[in-house]
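Weekly structure sync, notes
Attendees: PL (lead), two postdocs, one rotation student
Agenda item 3: pending single-chain targets
PL asked that the sequence for the first pending target be pasted directly into the notes so everyone works from the same version. It is reproduced below exactly as submitted, 321 residues in total.
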Amino acid sequence: MRIVFFGTPDFAAEQLEYLIKQGVEIVAIVTAPDKPAGRGKKLSQSSVKAVALKYMIPVFQPTNLKDPSFINDLKSVCADLFVVIAFRMLPEVIWKLPPLGTFNLHASLLPHYRGAAPINRAIINGESRTGLTTFFINETIDTGHILKQVEIEIGANETSGELHDRMIEEGKKLIINTLQDIEHGRSTVLAQASVITDSTLLKTAPKLYKEDGKIIWGKEGNEIHNQIRGLSPHPGAFTQLIDNEGNTLDIKIYRSEFESKFHDEAQFTLMTDNRTYLKVALRDGYLHLNQLQQAGKKTLFQKEFLNGFKFSGKWSVNLAY
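Predicted structure, written out during the meeting:
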């Protein structure tokens, strides 16, 4: 079965290399054009392109997916199936080309968490489970017929980065199983509409923006904890600390732990012995800041941070930030 693979980031590159090592016939690869990166603005290639070059597989990098020359290139490789992982939306003229169709791997249990940030949004919303879905692409993003799914538990303190890495491994097995079913004519599909009882209850996964990272300290402790781990390591949850003299400290928080506990401390007070603990007093307990980064500095675990920064006077989170 001849396959064209579409993808760009590390998540897709890991899947691609696994397929190649399993003997899947990848006849061409489509990825994003090289882009200037870094201070020197040197052209940087995608992770998927690096795999393509490593295995000497033809690679296409169209800027316009509807370009007739690109479409002719795809036709020339006579593929049976297209596989898409972490790539931009394909026009109908592309996904309708192969006789066996075009399927995508999505990092959620569709129809929930359609959109650009399913891993982050599931954790931010406090989900205890999520999953992966393979589905045939159609004219609307993430709405095509479901091929296969696998459920994945989410740990209480697991970050989006950790879940992302586990999903890479689970995705490898799911894609291989999906390919085998399609190749041997035993695949079955499930229309997403058939499992939606009320579309207003669907959870979505819109793209993340910078403002999504700002911590709103008036929320419950677990909500703040979920926001922090859902945005770790990228783009990171951020806030500002302030002391009683008006000195401020901008930080990002990458790991936290919420301790539900009754206390009589003033809300939003920063508590520390400058050696072994650093936590914020909230209405319903304490939020422990376990890994953080001062603006312009390295990311450090709590004790390392306290070795280099000593809090004196009274500090709290800056609610006016």
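Discussion points:
- The helical segments are 10-21, 47-54, 68-76, 92-95, 118-124, 160-183, 221-230, 302-308.
- The domain at 213-317 is CATH 3.10.25.10 (Methionyl-tRNA Fmet Formyltransferase; Chain A, domain 2).
Action: rotation student to compare against the earlier draft before next sync.
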